[in-house]
Write a structure and sequence with these properties.
The protein is α/β, with parallel strands linked by helices. It contains nine helices and 14 strands. The protein has helices spanning 23-34, 47-57, 86-96, 122-131, 160-172, 197-209, 226-231, 243-248, 260-268; strands at 5-8, 38-41, 63-65, 70-72, 79-81, 105-111, 114-117, 135-137, 151-156, 179-184, 187-191, 216-220, 234-237, 251-252. Helix 1 (23-34) runs parallel beside helix 9. The longest helix is centred in the middle third of the chain and has 13 residues, at 160-172. It starts with a strand and ends in a 6-residue tail after the last helix.
């Protein structure tokens, strides 16, 4: 069955070290669109951070941000938003700011597409610069949690600490309470339990476009792409992806610096017949 929807992650997939979409990838995306294949992005990034990449691919579909917690059509401004409960968010703040964890993590809270932090650290500054957003320091993050945040993110100053805290948090919180995932080696993300890229792509494919999973191709590079790759009829993992992600993919592309998305599009979509 022919592919009708192509869904792309951003970081490590279409955007590499220079934080830009390389020309071969742009050309490959346009070639897919000329075959009537619709294209959109599914990212862990904030909506405002993902928007410049979305505008470059010139699509009219909704943009999937915050791993699916925020789905918005920039043209119509129609939005689906599923935030994490503030009670869980407060508990996560207590955990990461505890004496045992405080020196190893920085915490980000996202409300109304703004990034709030306790203070500006080197890790936060690096994150903000790559995301091209301003981080707003507020001291105690608890004072801004008057409403449910879209997402809570912990940046590990030592990435190996994620391997320590992940099992602890999985034991503490069932999948029915919170969805925990990694979008990078040092980023741990907490969201509403019904949020993941797979559910977001399913909504876009089946509810918005009326197509089947077998007509979807998805490309990603990390754990937060897992459910999306499992849903898609054709799933592509980037060469830099963890082995667990490569194992669920139908094919492994070269990494982002070798224009893996362009290679994958050319391999699977270039000669589709309609």
């Amino acid at each position: 069955m022919a592919i009708k929807l192509l869904v792309l992650d951003i970081d490590g997939t279409i955007a590499g070290d220079n934080n830009q979409i390389r020309k071969p990838v742009k050309l490959a995306i346009k070639a897919a669109q000329k075959q009537n294949i619709k294209v959109t992005l599914a990212t862990g990034r904030m909506y405002r951070s993902a928007l410049p990449y979305y505008e470059q691919i010139e699509t009219k579909l909704p943009l999937i941000a915050y791993n699916g917690a925020w789905i918005q059509n920039p043209d119509t401004q129609e939005k689906e938003h599923l935030p994490i409960g503030k009670e869980i968010a407060l508990e996560l703040l207590d955990y990461f700011e505890s004496p045992a964890m405080n020196s190893y993590f920085g915490v980000h809270c996202y409300l109304e597409d703004q990034l709030y932090v306790k203070e500006i650290t080197p890790s936060t500054q690096e994150y903000a610069e790559r995301s091209q957003v301003a981080a707003i320091p507020v001291g105690d993050l608890r004072k801004i949690l008057q409403v449910n945040p879209t997402k809570v993110l912990a940046i590990a100053h030592k990435p190996q600490m994620i391997k320590k805290c992940f099992p602890e948090l999985k034991t503490r919180y069932s999948r029915e309470k919170v969805h925990l995932t990694q979008s990078s080696h040092n980023l741990l993300e907490a969201m509403h339990p019904q949020v993941n890229k797979g559910k977001a792509v399913q909504y876009l494919a089946e509810k918005v476009l009326g197509i089947k999973p077998t007509e979807v191709m998805a490309i990603g590079d990390n754990f937060n792409d897992l459910e999306m790759l499992q849903y898609a009829g054709v799933s592509i993992a980037m060469g830099s992806a963890p082995d667990e992600i490569k194992k669920v993919a139908h094919w492994v592309a070269p990494d982002v610096e070798a224009d893996g998305v362009a290679v994958a599009i050319n391999k699977f979509l270039e000669k589709q017949n309609y």
